[in-house]
Amino acid sequence: MSQRRSPPGPWNPPLTSLWRQRDLLRFLLRIGSQYGDLWRFRVGRRNYYVLNHPDHIRQVLIADASKFIKGPAIRNARITLGDGLLSSEGDLHKQQRRLITPVFHPTRVATYAERMVQCAETMCAHWTDGQVIDLHQRMTALTLDVVTQVLFGGEIGTDVGRIGAAMHVLVNMFDRARNPLAPLLNKLPLPSNFRFLRALREVEATLQGFIENKKRGNRDPKNPPDLLELLLATGGMSDKQLRDEAVTLFTAGHETTANALVWTWYLLAQHPEAEQKFHEELDRVLGDRLARSEDLDHLPYTRMVLSESMRLYPPAWIVARQAVENYEIAGYPIAAGSVLLMSQYLIHRDPRFWGDDPTRFDPGRFTEDAKSQRPRWAYFPFGAGPRSCIGEGFAWVEAMLLLATIGRRWRLQLVDPHQTVHLHATITLRPENAIPMRLIRRNPPPGVASVTRVSILPRDADG
Question: Which residues contact 407 (CB under 8 A, 6 or more apart)?
């Protein structure tokens, strides 16, 4: 290995900067602007290196991916995820990814489009002009509905509030996963542990119900095969492995998309010109009919809006890898056991790749010409390499269809345009406080005949 000195950085930063979510994001931005492409800090006996350049992202996540395992935070999160795709390693991960990949093939994802749209239509059918909603709560309930129906072939109906509350507890538990003492804290008789175990049992029981229903052969022949049917058909998973994959996909499958939708509506409400262009594109392409999967290629501005939203507020905001052997990057020696951090939140806001005003919302950054002017891995909202998000294609289709379905009939207006929204950087980047939004009904485009609404099921009272 090179004998070059260690990279610069704050050797022992205050622990509050690392464990408190808002302080951690500020810490990354502040120290990153000071030390540049590669810097380090230490917590206890462990060295952490922050990589802040697209070339480093490519090297670690793609070229040398086999020299790393997931970071310690994800290993601590196995209390929730077990050995699902997000946390498994080695041969098990390769086997499971091979089994699950066909579920997310683009042609299969396209068959899920109608059910995604119907979930959004069902929600919107209960909205009224001028009604105020909790944006995060509504988008979370919607994506829970989608993942339940599309991936698990089930219904949660009026249980959405109960399951949503349990998922909220599980997601918040990921805050602890970054703490080196997490394995010890998880064993103590703490109220948070009791809440977590109750919530985990709630979610597992719901998923087990879906699994048992599929094992009995119950399915709607009008719908394409869902995740559970395809996984059961392979015959290659134990009951425990099936549970772990179900919990992982249930958690990740709704949480990331819900947050992407929240930040997109939040940004559109603050930028009237972009909002107008977004609605005009929907009117032009969809008129008064429901969105279909084949429409997505004709909604380039909607994709640009979503891309820019995930640049500023990436649902997956940091990637961690731990070196399994001595390593070298940019001429610096990295000892085995060190943790390398790559933050989408940090690189997506770097002025070298995004201009002098990188915090400004500008969907124009994602025209084909603009994308060709910057390094490929300056933007990686779904990770990169063999451990990239397996559901990336599914997430793009889902988010765009839900945006189009809601946006063709509704504007979402901030109740308080001056509200400060704090960020909660847990396993995803979610709002810490509620974002009240007022629903404004849009008029149908002139000269377009109305269509019949899809049938709906009863929902909870707040729509």
Answer: 278, 279, 282, 302
The tokens describing 408, both together, are: 């063709």
CA dist 153 and 81 (Å) reads 21
The answer on pLDDT for 334 being more than 80 is yes
How much is the pLDDT for 451? Answer: 37
Rounded CA separation 8/36 (Å): 9
Taking the mean position of all CA atoms in its chain, how far away is CA 416?
26
The C-alpha atoms of residue 415 and residue 429 are separated, in whole angstroms, by 22
Q: β-pairing, 319-323 with 339-342? A: antiparallel
Residue 280 Cα distances to 275, 318, 422, 458, angstroms? 9, 34, 31, 31
What one-character DSSP code corresponds to residue 179?
Answer: S
The region that residue 447 occupies, defined by phi over 0 for left and psi between -120 and 50 for alpha, beta otherwise, is left
pLDDT of 450 over the 80 cut:
no
Residue 210 reports pLDDT greater than 90 = no
Tokens representing 102? 């066909």
Quick one: DSSP state of residue 313?
S
- Residues making up the chain, counted from first to last: 463
- Is the pLDDT at 60 greater than 90? The verdict is yes
| pLDDT on residue 45 | 80
Place of tokens 């086999």: 66
Which is more confident, 83 or 310? Answer: 310
Residue 75: the pLDDT is: 87
In this structure, are residues 438 and 131 in contact, taking their beta carbons and an 8 Å threshold? yes
DSSP one-letter code for 91? H
pLDDT in tens, 73-83: 888 888 888 88
Neighbouring-strand partners of residue 133: 437
Distance CA 459, CA 160 (A): 9
What is d(CA 134, CA 54) in angstroms, rounded to the nearest whole number? Answer: 36
Residue in the structure block whose two tokens are 């509050």? 16
- C-alpha 71/C-alpha 93 separation (Å) is 15
